[in-house]
């Protein structure tokens, strides 16, 4: 059992399942509704906990009734949140997700006014207790400072950073991770048609050894190892029901496999398999390697 810290945000997701998306200015009855804890790193920890890792979350939490629901769910998955600062008189971030049962795709609206983590929030944390720290690529200034601190004082700890969305200055985070986990949307927004071209160009700009990983949706995953070996792994062939959090599941399975000592190729294959299984079910319960 390895000790994993996830750094990011935790949200409450309200998911409504409909057959087809409604047209503008219409009313439609949902077939199902769920309340789930969300947030990328938060979801990744839920999967890692089910895979047998000892997990902790570092994120700001509000003090409203939604926060109590979030904390209760963290406890359900045995995720330690004792390091999370509680912010008085605030509201929890929420996402409203419309899920099409016909296509498995989803539309999301997100509300957030809760502040992000600061360096001061981490002053009392002893990072040496963890074997792996996984960061969401957000809150760039604080994340960069934490990455630099960990690299300087705890070089043995393996670090991964999820690069999902283009945010100003996010490229600064590249230089402090052992693994960078890119989304297909991010690479395409960077005007690259293939992951291979993006990953190979990026590797030439890095001053350190780093595994570069990209989940490529229904086409599987692409990776360029720190040794310069390129891999392509196909996706699991499955009837898609729910793509929500598939990337978070992919990241969890990759981290778990690497913690077990597997190489990059085997790890992205394991990640594709578990992400595929997730897409064939609602939610992230019951996932195992």
Oligomer: single chain
CATH architecture: 3-Layer(aba) Sandwich
Biggest β-sheet description: 9 strands, mixed
Helix content, binned percent? 25-40%
Strand count:
13
Fold and architecture overview:
It is a single chain. This protein is α/β, with parallel strands linked by helices and 289 residues long. It has one domain (3-23, 30-279): UDP-N-acetylmuramoyl-L-alanine:D-glutamate ligase, CATH 3.40.1190. It is 29% helix and 24% strand. The chain has seven helices and 13 strands. The chain has helices at residues 40-50, 65-76, 140-153, 184-189, 195-205, 246-259, 264-279, and strands at 3-7, 11-18, 32-38, 54-58, 79-80, 94-100, 106-111, 132-136, 158-163, 179-183, 211-215, 221-224, 230-233. A nine-stranded mixed sheet has the order 5-4-1-8-9-10-11-12-13, with helices on both faces. Strands 3-2-6-7 form a four-stranded mixed sheet. Helix 1 (40-50) packs across helix 6. The radius of gyration is 18 Å and the shape is globular.
Which keywords apply here?
UDP-N-acetylmuramoyl-L-alanine:D-glutamate ligase, globular, 24% strand, single chain, four-stranded mixed beta sheet, alpha/beta, 29% helix, 13 strands, 289 residues, nine-stranded mixed beta sheet
Please sum up the structure shown.
By secondary structure, the protein is an alpha/beta fold.
List the topology elements:
Layout: E1 3-7, E2 11-18, E3 32-38, H1 40-50, E4 54-58, H2 65-76, E5 79-80, E6 94-100, E7 106-111, E8 132-136, H3 140-153, E9 158-163, E10 179-183, H4 184-189, H5 195-205, E11 211-215, E12 221-224, E13 230-233, H6 246-259, H7 264-279
Parallel strand pairs: 1-4, 1-8, 2-6, 4-5, 8-9, 9-10, 10-11
Antiparallel strand pairs: 2-3, 6-7, 11-12, 12-13
Helix pairs in contact: 1-6, 6-7
